[in-house]
Structure formats: structure tokens, C-alpha cells
Amino acid sequence: MADTILRRGANASVLAQAIINTVIDLALPIVTAYKDVVGSLELDILTKPDIKHTSELYITTTEIEMIRSSVSPILNIVKSLRDKKNDKVDTPPSTSPGGAPHVRDDDDNSESKVKISAVALTYLRDAEDHIILITESLDSMRKSCTNMIDLIFNTISAYQNESIKQLTFVTIVFLPLGFLTAYFTVPFTDFADEKHSQKFYWGITIPVVVVVVLFLARNILTWYYRRMVQRRFLVRSRKANARSE
Question: What is the CA radius of gyration of the chain?
């Protein structure tokens, strides 16, 4: 068997901090995995926001809250063990007036029997730093998910307002066109355009429709192009950061 501090020292406090460190080490990959999940959702939301992302963010936030509630008691345990005072352990027993030693009650003196070694205190400080880092990361991810949910609703609301504006513009433009169409459909006795075939009608209608659609959808096309460029830039920057780390 390997010769370790646990085997050489035979100290209960060192064993306790080893168990706590093991729990913390197992929690670190979980936090890293959730960072990747939140980062992927953030990339999708910034480039292609959708109302469906809110359900994924809600589930992720709930899971992060559950992990946070499971990790918080460990921080309290580490703080209580680190702040434990050992000066009560070596106090001699008091004597009664008759000279007989006074026996203390175990229930009243249970805390004084806990002794934390210097080695355990050193490792507990390191464990406290790690657990604080984990809790702060979880809180940061939870806030990010909440902010992304607000961003989704604000973005969708802005898109709806833009769509209403475009529909209003189309209505304003095509109201006089509808009036002109109704006017020229009145049966005249002599109307020169009636001599042309349907190709003449489609030759005028298709270019007009294409120009109108491109003009009205110019903001959407520009936004889509910018989102594609931003998405490629973000993916490349994340890959570069991952390689540098």
C-alpha cells in the first residue's frame, strides 16, 4: 500500500479534510460541464434567439440551484472546522472542594474534544478557497441564465415591433396600389393594355414584387448576415481561448 499522510498520521481531522477535498474535487468537473452548457446556450441565444431556449435555461437554472444548495453545507462545515479552537482540549480537569476530580459531562464538553491538527487546517484553507470558487461560479452561471432569459424576451419583443412596422409600411404602400388596381379594372370601351397577353402582366409584377420585398426585408437580411459573421467570430475566439488554456 502507498505510504500517505493519512496512513502515517492516523489523524481523524486529516481524514475528515481528505473526504471533504474528495467531494470538492468531484464537484469541479460538474461545474466545468455546466459552464460549457451555459456557454453553448449563450452562443445560440446571441446569434439565433428563440423562445424554446427559455425552457432549456429554466432547466439549467434549476439544476444549478440544486447543486448550489448541495455545496453550501460543505462550505459551512469547512468554516466551522477551520475556526475550531483547540485550546480547550488540554485543559486539566477541575477538582471539587473535597479534592476529588470533577468529571465533566460529555454532552456539555463534546466540542472541546474535537482537535484539528495543523496539517488539516492547512488543507482546510485550500478546500475553503476551492468551495468558494465553486459557489461563486454557480452564482455567476445562475445570473447569466436569468439575464439570457430577459434578453430572449426583449429580443423577440423588438422583432415583433419591427414586423408590425413593416406590415404598417406595406399597408400604406399597397392601399393606393389597391385603389389604382380597382380603378383600372373598371370596364372601359377602349383600353390599350387589354391587347397584351399575360406575359406583359407578369413582366411588370415580378420585378416590382422582388424590389418591394428586398426593400422591406433589407433590415432582416442585414441582421441575418451580421449574426452569421458574429457566430463564426465567436466560435473561432472560443476555440482559440480553449487552445491557449
Answer: 36
Rounded to two decimals, what is the model's pTM?
0.59
Q: What is the pLDDT of residues 46-105, one digit of tens each?
A: 888 888 889 999 999 999 999 999 888 888 888 888 777 554 444 444 444 554 444 455
Rounded CA gap, 20 and 129, in Å?
12
Per-residue three-class SS string for the chain: CCCCHHHHHCCHHHHHHHHHHHHHHHHHHHHHHHHHHHHHHHHHHHHCCCCCHHHHHHHHHHHHHHHHHHHHHHHHHHHHHHCCCCCCCCCCCCECCCCCECCCCCCCCCHHHCCCCHHHHHHHHHHHHHHHHHHHHHHHHHHHHHHHHHHHHHHHHHHHHHHHHHHHHHHHHHHHHHHHHHHHCCCCCCCHHHHCCHHHHHHHHHHHHHHHHHHHCHHHHHHHHHHHHHHHHHHHHHHHHHHHC
Domains defined along the chain, listed by start: 1-88+107-157 (1.20.58.340)
| CA atoms of 63 and 142, how far apart (whole Å) | 10
Q: How far apart are CA 132 and CA 127, in angstroms?
A: 9
